[in-house]
Amino acid sequence: MNPLTDVFFDLHRAGDPFVLYNAWDAASAAVFESVGVAALGTTSAGTAWTLGYPDGERVDQDELFAQIARIVRSTRLPVSADIEAGFGMSPEAAVRAVERTIAAGAVGANLEDFDSQTGDVISTEAHVARIRAVKARTEALGLPFFLNARTDILLHGLGPEETQVDRTIERLRAYAAAGADGVFAPGASEADVIAKLVAAVDKPLNILGGADTPSVPELARLGVARVSIGGSPMRRTLEVLRDITIELHDRGTFDYAREPAIPYRELNAMFPHH
């Protein structure tokens, strides 16, 4: 059993949320770890873009799981993988994706109910069957594995707006009852909505942090257990890279080099165990 699994499970405490820092490669994982964070996730968008693919389950799976394994090897922290919907909407596809996630060394994974092919969520019953199949498989293997069941109704604004919160709650309750270890509702950013989700489900609630999300101390007051940051750090990093490129391309100057940067020796020292 992965010794970091228990550490990861124990981090999930309602009202005492930890931030899951979503890495896209070994370097980003090393930088996150250097600050003293508790755990890492991967970002589906960030890893796909790093590998040269668009997001939305269009990445080559062999390359993706190799990248997850590379991130795991680069850190001493527990890593949870974003495997989107599991590269197929059947229970069998979800089980295969989780088996590959375990083989890569991750201690958990997000499994979402959004079908990128149709642009909509699958039925609650279909996702429940996937959750049950995954939990049955990990239990048969004797491997505790943190399955974070995610619904994307709020994230994509699916269906009538006035029903989105109630339908999200219905799904999260069903996913928790099916055996999910935690539930995830990206797109929930208003304090009253987050409070309703916390009160409605008896499993740790994961929120996606962003510009409109309450602060971590406020999320703690609301009873949240986990906060993911998704692909936003990578997108911000790439915006800095674009600014550097524009400066060089348009002006031919090197003013960007005057800005703060991690020194070479410090960055190189972040990889001592390889």
Account of the 3D structure:
The strands form two sheets. This protein has an eight-stranded parallel β-barrel, surrounded by eight helices. It has a two-stranded antiparallel ribbon with strand order 5-6. The chain is built from twelve helices and ten strands. With 274 residues, the protein is of the alpha/beta class. It has a single domain (11-234), classed as Alpha-Beta Barrel (TIM Barrel). The chain has helices at residues 4-11, 26-34, 44-50, 61-73, 91-103, 124-141, 153-156, 164-177, 191-200, 216-222, 232-251, 264-268; strands spanning 18-23, 40-42, 79-82, 108-112, 114-115, 120-121, 146-150, 182-184, 205-208, 226-228.
Q: What is the name of the CATH topology? A: TIM Barrel
Strand arrangement, major sheet: 1-2-3-4-7-8-9-10
Task: Report mean pLDDT, rounded to a whole number.
Answer: 97
Number of domains: 1
CATH superfamily: Phosphoenolpyruvate-binding domains
Shape summary? globular
> What's the helical proportion of residues?
40-55%
Count helical runs: 12
Key structural traits:
single chain; 274 residues; eight-stranded parallel barrel; globular; alpha/beta; TIM Barrel
Give a short synopsis of this structure.
The chain has twelve helices and ten strands. Helix content is 47%, strand content 14%. The chain starts with a helix and ends in a 6-residue tail after the last helix.
